[in-house]
Amino acid sequence: MSKSLFTSLAKVAALALLFASLGAPALAQPINVLIFGDSLTSGFDLPEAQGFPAQLKRRLLADGYNVVVWNGSNAGDTSADGYARINQALQYNPDLVLVEFGANDMLDHTDPRVTYRYLDAIIRICKARGARVILAGMLSLPKNGPNYIVGFNNIYPTLAHSNRVPPYTFMLAGVYGHPALMQSDNEHPNALGAAVMAAGIAPLIEANLRSIRVASPTRRRAPLLSRR
Fold first, then answer.
1. Which residue segments constitute the domains of the chain, with CATH numbers given?
2. Which residues have CB under 8 Å from 129's CB, separation 6+?
3. pLDDT in tens, 143-186
4. pLDDT over 90 at 109, yes or no
5. Coil, strand or helix: which one is 165?
6. Is 136 exposed, middle or buried (0-12, 13-18, 19+ CB in 10 A)?
7. Cβ(155)–Cβ(112) under 8 Å?
8. What average pLDDT does the segment 90-116 reach?
9. Which residues carry out catalysis?
């Protein structure tokens, strides 16, 4: 083999390796999904494997999505608490954030205008950091009275419209009010309830994952933080 031919073949091989190395991360890089909310999505009082984040991750993986699901939810948090720790939560470098707050605001009878402002700020910060946002809705208990119910329940569709983010009408849809799906406190989902929640919201999350994958096929590397 002549020296020139050997040199040409070596260059072709080097280019092939270069293109392969450039293409591989796009296939291997997972999409980061952050669950950011309160006890309804934290896996409260459940083994980690049975909580909502873990069950959602299994559902998404089974449906063929390459994801890392981060549990950024904290039991007892109000929308104000979420706002206070949003920058810490965004250290997970999420591509998609499921924002789920409001249940504790409602139980505390917080002015809906206050809840609105904090949720609006959380959404705007997430979007400014380049993440897509899904807003999980909450509904007021009847005992709060008609004026509060209207003001509170309108928070979520109004926010979704003004911020142009997809809403999920009620995080506990198909679960709340069903004793077989709730813990003994009648406030939090049990393991089966968490599975129903994951199945209910999965189609909306997957639609957004497809949009992320199409818009930016090269995923950002997950940060070096311990996974919950």
1. 29-215 (3.40.50.1110)
2. 90
3. 999 999 999 999 999 999 999 999 999 999 999 999 999 999 99
4. yes
5. coil
6. buried
7. yes
8. 98
9. 39, 185, 188
